[in-house]
Specification:
- By secondary structure, the protein is an alpha/beta fold.
- It folds into two domains: 143 residues, Glycogen Phosphorylase B (Rossmann fold, 3-Layer(aba) Sandwich); 185 residues, Glycogen Phosphorylase B (Rossmann fold), CATH 3.40.50.
- The chain contains twelve helices and twelve strands.
- Helix 6 crosses helix 7.
- The longest helix is centred in the last third of the chain and has 22 residues.
- The protein is globular and about 60 Å long.
């Protein structure tokens, strides 16, 4: 078993010739990690920085040209671990950054040759994470992005630039312009999440969309993944409010999703990857939260536009005040998201519209 330590004794960054980051999934976590890895790469230009990541995300990351992307699918069987070991057995790293905390990812860490394996504390980790790393970041109640940022602090990173660096080609932008041919502004609504408990019901979105279209001269596009739940939810919504609505759920690649969100003026979504992607692209975001505290995993640049029913969900379904719960507590109750009211979302849309209209008028 690895010896346990803490992150009070920082390493000599001059000795860091090679660093391996492990974060295979999911989309939101991948997005939140990018600024930290870009920061490390800029701070240590002579250090080889590698990233173990699921190949599904590679089309999103071509701008990370100074980071070696090692495509590894999330292991599910013993032979998958053997494949990982075989591909890395000749590699030696000075530091492993254990960003992923799940049992399947933990079993990767012993296969990697690195004297320093930096991970989370007991308060932030799960599935015996601390047994698979030998150095732990002190616990803080903070956003997931800020926790990742402290990995770079520990290494001694000096660069303080927080950016994602996404870029799109002229051809990609032309494709989006052809897709969104109607007069804007365009609103993206990402109704579903990979976990149904994080999603509001179809009737909620139908009511929201009809009231938005009645109040504002906007056009709406539905976005989302290609899993059965998200596609069924979007189909139900589209059937009930087909007017001025484009359904792209399950019809775009991750790269195309990013291009679409980059051309939209507002995104409304629950705690899911496209929300963090839109936020990373610098687009206004309204987050719908009841399952997780938005202070932990909300849109990083738009916390003031979150509709937050997490405190009420904690009281109703766990019988506790949110301050009494461990920081990373999720409320796994099928009715949690039903606490979010359409009127509260419309209030945020009104705030966005006032800001958008003011800026648009100023530039005319």
């Amino acid at each position: 078993m690895l010896l346990s330590g803490d992150a009070s004794n920082n390493p000599d960054h001059q000795s860091l010739h090679s660093i391996l980051a492990v974060r295979l999934s999911a989309l939101g976590d991948i997005i939140l990690l990018i600024p930290t890895l870009r920061r490390i790469a800029r701070s240590f230009p002579n250090t080889k920085l590698s990233w173990l990541v699921d190949p599904i995300f590679l089309p999103l990351l071509p701008h990370l040209h100074n980071i070696e992307l090692i495509p590894i699918r999330k292991p599910r069987r013993i032979k998958d671990y053997w494949r990982i070991y075989h591909s890395l057995r000749h590699r030696r790293f000075d530091c492993l950054l254990a960003f992923q905390s799940s049992l399947r990812s933990h079993l990767i860490y012993p296969l990697i040759h690195a004297p320093l394996k930096l991970g989370y504390s007991n308060q932030q980790a799960k599935d015996l994470h601390t047994l698979f790393v030998n150095t732990h970041l002190p616990f803080k109640k903070e956003h997931l992005l800020d926790t990742a940022w402290r990995f770079a602090d520990y290494l001694g990173a000096t660069d303080q630039t927080l950016d994602w660096g996404f870029t799109f080609t002229e051809e990609e932008n032309s494709w989006a312009n052809r897709l969104l041919m109607g007069a804007g502004p365009w609103l993206a609504i990402n109704p579903g999440a990979s976990k149904p408990e994080r999603s509001c019901r179809a009737d909620f979105y139908v009511d929201l969309i009809l009231r938005i279209l009645a109040a504002y001269p906007v056009q709406i596009i539905l976005t989302g993944g290609n899993n059965h739940f998200e596609m069924t939810l979007a189909a139900t919504i589209t059937q009930k409010c087909p007017h001025r609505l484009i359904n792209l759920v399950g019809q775009t690649s991750l790269r195309e999703l990013a291009i679409v969100l980059n051309h939209c003026d507002l995104t409304i979504a629950p705690d899911t990857g496209p929300l963090h992607l839109a936020d990373a692209l610098g687009k206004p975001v309204i987050g719908l939260y009841a399952v997780a505290p938005p202070e932990l995993s909300g849109p990083y640049h738009y916390p003031h536009w979150v509709v937050n029913q997490y405190p009420e969900a904690a009281r109703r379904y766990l019988g506790k005040e949110p301050e009494q719960l461990p920081w990373v507590t999720r409320i796994h109750h099928p009715e949690a998201m039903s606490l979010i009211q359409v009127s509260a979302v419309l209030d945020r849309v009104s705030q966005w519209w006032t800001q958008f209209h003011t800026v648009t008028t100023h530039h005319q």
